[in-house]
Amino acid sequence: MTTSTHYISTYCHITPQQVSVDGVVLHSNTSETFENFLKQLYKEHNCRYPKFFKMDTMSKLAFMGAEFLLKSAKEATTEVQNTALVFSNKSSSLETDRKHQESIASETEFYPSPAVFVYTLPNIGIGEVAIRHQLQTENAFFVFESFEANFLQKYTVSLLREGKCNSALCGWVEVDKTENHGFFYLVEATGKWQHTEKNITTFYNKI
Questions:
Q1: Tens-of-pLDDT digits for all 207 residues of the chain?
Q2: Parallel, antiparallel, or unpaired: how do β-strands 180-188 and 193-194 relate?
Q3: What is the DSSP string of the chain?
Q4: What is the top-level taxon of the source organism (predicted)?
Q5: CB of 151 within 8 A of CB of 144?
Q6: What CATH number does the domain located at 7-204 have?
Q7: Domain locations in the chain?
Q8: How far is 181 from 204, CA to CA, in rounded Å?
């Protein structure tokens, strides 16, 4: 296991049922769908980013996860602008890919929808986060069969040690027919928990 002098300062789960930060439930879903729940969260937090409503569900999930953790970091006067983004999931942009394919196959449409096509790459979501928070640091999106705490820990440590960022927002943003789950954690120079594979895995499993 790669050791690190950095810490996990906070973490967040967003599921179809609720939002929790550091294990404390902050919001419960009163909407019928996961996407409507994300819209509910957006409105409750008065985010003021109109492009949100044009995003696909995965990008909305990434956006709201960043809102919960980076907004708190800003309020704590943390230097958010030098935060790297390291995200992952297992189904890539499959949900949006299906919608894109449906538009191609539709006999009533002459061409695919550009608004859908733009989100057929999984890294578009972190691009939205970077624009929202004016981040110009490293960002990467990985696709795994399952959540890879070991890889994410090592990769994040390498970014921090090489001076490519001062902090990192890591996220698991899975949106598909069988799973809708966002898990996010912020790695900084100071914090509550050591940035280890064991702690990342423990927090990931605390849904």
A1: 444 589 999 999 999 999 999 999 999 998 889 999 999 999 999 999 999 998 899 999 999 999 999 976 655 556 678 999 999 999 876 666 566 566 666 666 656 666 655 665 678 889 999 999 999 899 999 999 999 999 999 999 999 999 999 999 999 999 988 889 999 999 998 899 999 999 999 999 988
A2: unpaired
A3: ----S-EEEEEEEE-SSEEEETTEEEEE--SSSHHHHHHHHHHHTT---GGGGGS-HHHHHHHHHHHHHHHHHHHTT--GGGEEEEEEESSTTHHHHHHHHHHHH-TT-SS--HHHHTTSSTTHHHHHHHHHHT--S-EEEEE-SS--HHHHHHHHHHHHHTTS-SEEEEEEEEESSS-EEEEEEEEESS-SEE--HHHHHHHHT--
A4: Bacteria
A5: yes
A6: 3.40.47.10
A7: 7-204
A8: 10
The encoded tokens of residue 174 equal 């899975």
Q: How is residue 80 written in tokens?
A: 């958010």
